[in-house]
Specification:
The complex is a heterodimer.
Chain A: H1 16-45, H2 49-52, H3 72-80, H4 83-114, H5 120-131, H6 135-148, H7 156-161, H8 163-180, H9 183-191, H10 196-207, H11 209-225, H12 228-233, H13 242-249, E1 251-252, E2 255-256, H14 258-278, H15 280-292
Antiparallel strand pairs in A: 1-2
Helix pairs in contact in A: 1-14, 3-14, 4-8, 4-11, 5-8, 8-11, 9-10, 11-15, 13-14
Chain B: H1 2-11, H2 13-19, H3 34-39, H4 42-72, H5 88-94, H6 97-128, H7 135-142, H8 144-147, H9 150-160, H10 167-174, H11 188-215, H12 220-228, H13 233-261, H14 265-270, H15 282-292, H16 296-304, H17 307-326
Helix pairs in contact in B: 4-16, 5-16, 6-11, 6-13, 11-13, 13-17, 15-16
The chains are: A mainly alpha, B mainly alpha.
Chain lengths: 293, 327
Amino acid sequence: MAGRAGSGAGMVEGSRWHKWVFFHVPLMVFVVGTLFPFYWMLVTAFRPDGELYRPWRAVNNTPFWTTQPTLEHAIYLFKQTMFATWLWNTMFIALLSTLISLFCGLLAGYALARLRFPLAGGLGTSIFVTYLVPPTLLFIPLANIIRDFRLGDTPWSLILTYPTFLIPFCTWLLMGYFKTIPKELEECARIDGATRVRAMIQIIFPIATPGILSAGIFAFTLSWNEFIYALVFLSSPQQKTVPVGVVSELIRGDVFFWGPLMAGALLGSIPVALIYSFFVEHYVAGLTGAVKG
Amino acid sequence: MSKARSRVIAGGAGQAAEAARLTAFPRETTTLGIFARLLEDERVLGSLLLLPTVVLLGLFIAYPFVKGVWLSLTSATVGNPGEFVWFGNYVKIWNDSIFQRAAANTFVYTGVATVGKLALGMWLALLLNRHFRGKRLVRASMLLPFIVPTVLSTFAWKWMFDPTFSVLNWSLYHLGFIQTRIGWLTDPTMALGSVILVNIWRGMPFYAITLLAGLQTVNPELHEAAAIDGATGWQRFWRITWPLLLPVTMVVTLFSIIQTFADFQLVYVLTGGGPANATHLFATYAYQIGINTGLLGEGAAVSLAMFPMLFLIVVIQLWYIRRVEGA
């Protein structure tokens, strides 16, 4: 970057001083501000209790690092709580609800993008509107319904309800994808004698693979993130997901177990962060596609 | 038109396929059963493909909505269906000072956080739109607050705001900015501000990345031409970038307003609505009344109090998308 002006939108004019004030410094502030809470999570997760609870004005306080890293918090997490079970539950629920949503979204997206039938416009709009319904609007009646269906305190209460906010987004994303695929491809297959369904499955769906991947990854992170349904529908510790387990089992009354809490936050974030890091481009495509529809 | 054409093709596939035997799908359409023949009809196939989606959304969105409206008109509590009380719950919460506070908080929270996220997100997008070393890594890591489960990252903030062991207080004290500690979450006048800060931190990357995607479609020649004509960076932003980016900005902002307005997790983890009910939002108050206290009818009414505002935003959103697509 040393003094060389890039092209186009990256065009930078003025002196080196100018660039520091208007570019490097703000960017650094953004980076530090965004990442500091994660750094703090990391340090706390490995910091022994004796160092953790030291008065904030203490002279010998070195809050930004630790000289005696410890694994006691992580060990506590796996030995004294059901953290491993929560991880497994979260994974299982996120995977299944993502698969259900992809299945429904693929079919619905194809139908709305490609087929002409009465109600298509109305249904498309309703699906878009459900995308904008926040879970907090419906959690109380939904808790009743889950109880009536005898799904309370089972993973199915979440596997079946998460698709309500995943399907609309998958449908819209994939619809956009299908619309970019030329109709002729399908028509060729049909001239060759393929049925409509076969052309859809063998010609159109494979071309939409990048879209499916984007939708799937975005949906997976969303269901890994979900909180309020899991909080309301699950009650026994062995059924909980990571976010709910950490909230309800690592705080006793007013006492916060900060070491294990931060270790849990760190370990509970790593799976999604890993998946994200492998598929950044797909995730970003899903994110921007999700908004533009 | 193409529908009619493809029907004809499907019907005459027998002869057509005879002529071109290079086909991967030999004469499938001529040997179909009744069910498969029905699937060739766009109306039948369309309805069938939408069936799973309609069933799931009907069961877990439409039905709960109707049930929620019904619940909000009854005095139902946990384990007791209650009686029909007309608008009793709504009258009750209308006169409830905590509800009034929650409603005011929600509007302040949504307004301030949205402006903050949009301004900072736009700034970050403009910075990321330049060329610099390590750009991909920086861009990827900027999205982390959005990826990591909100509850978990919010706990990191709660720990940073801790009344006794706050690292923020430590830093400010050692930098000489403060003499006594700040009660980030314990001081009723500070708490809502702290929660808004965390919301901005979490939501800003979403704006930045979507706006960045929009920025990348802006033709750099426009900027070059304006720069040659002597426009300053500030002028170029307001005359070129902002108008071209407006459609994306509108859609992102409206979407984010809905999410912020209906937020629950941040307040639940950071303050639980306290201190002294100073930070309740609609959703956290609904949770407290409906789930903690077990007053299902009243809780459902508090939740549904969000509906008019959400409805308004959705209508604006739909109208705007139609207008942009129509143009």
